[in-house]
Amino acid sequence: MMSEVQVHTIARQMLEQHGFSAIAKAAEQAQACEGRGEADEAREWRHIADAMKIMRGPAHS
Questions:
Q1: CA nearest 14: which of 56, 43, 59, 42?
Q2: pTM
Q3: Which are the contacts of 41, defined by CB distance < 8 A and separation ≥ 6?
Q4: What are the domain boundaries of the chain?
Q5: What is the dihedral of CA 19, 50, 54, 51, to 10 degrees?
Q6: If 0-12 CB within 10 Å is exposed, 13-18 middle and 19+ buried, where does residue 44 land?
Q7: How many Å apart are CA 28 and CA 14, to the nearest integer?
Q8: Chain CA centroid to CA 55, Å
Q9: 3-state class of 2 per DSSP?
Q10: C-alpha to C-alpha distance for 33 and 61, rounded to whole angstroms
């Protein structure tokens, strides 16, 4: 399981690289992991996506 610091670091890096489409990319990764039966990894990708949603702020909700 990733620490909160790791989650936020990955979220920030993904936002810098991909902009707000990074949220969709994280969701796609979560679905792919679920498809392979990797529930823990899927949960981590969803956590990263949630962190990115917080970082973008309420103006973009």
A1: 56
A2: 0.89
A3: 33
A4: 4-60
A5: -80
A6: buried
A7: 13
A8: 11
A9: coil
A10: 25
Q: What is the pLDDT along the chain (61 residues), one digit of tens a residue?
A: 899 999 999 999 999 999 989 999 999 999 999 999 999 999 999 999 999 999 988 765 4
The dihedral region occupied by 20, where left means phi > 0, alpha psi between -120 and 50, and beta the remainder, is alpha
Give me the pLDDT at residue 43, please: 97
CB atoms within 10 A of CB 5: 8
Distance of CA 35 to the CA centre of its chain: 17
Asked if 2 contacts 51 with a C-beta cutoff of 8 angstroms, the reply is no
Q: How many residues does the chain have?
A: 61
Q: What is the DSSP string of 33-60?
A: HHHTT-HHHHHHHHHHHHHHHHHH-GGG
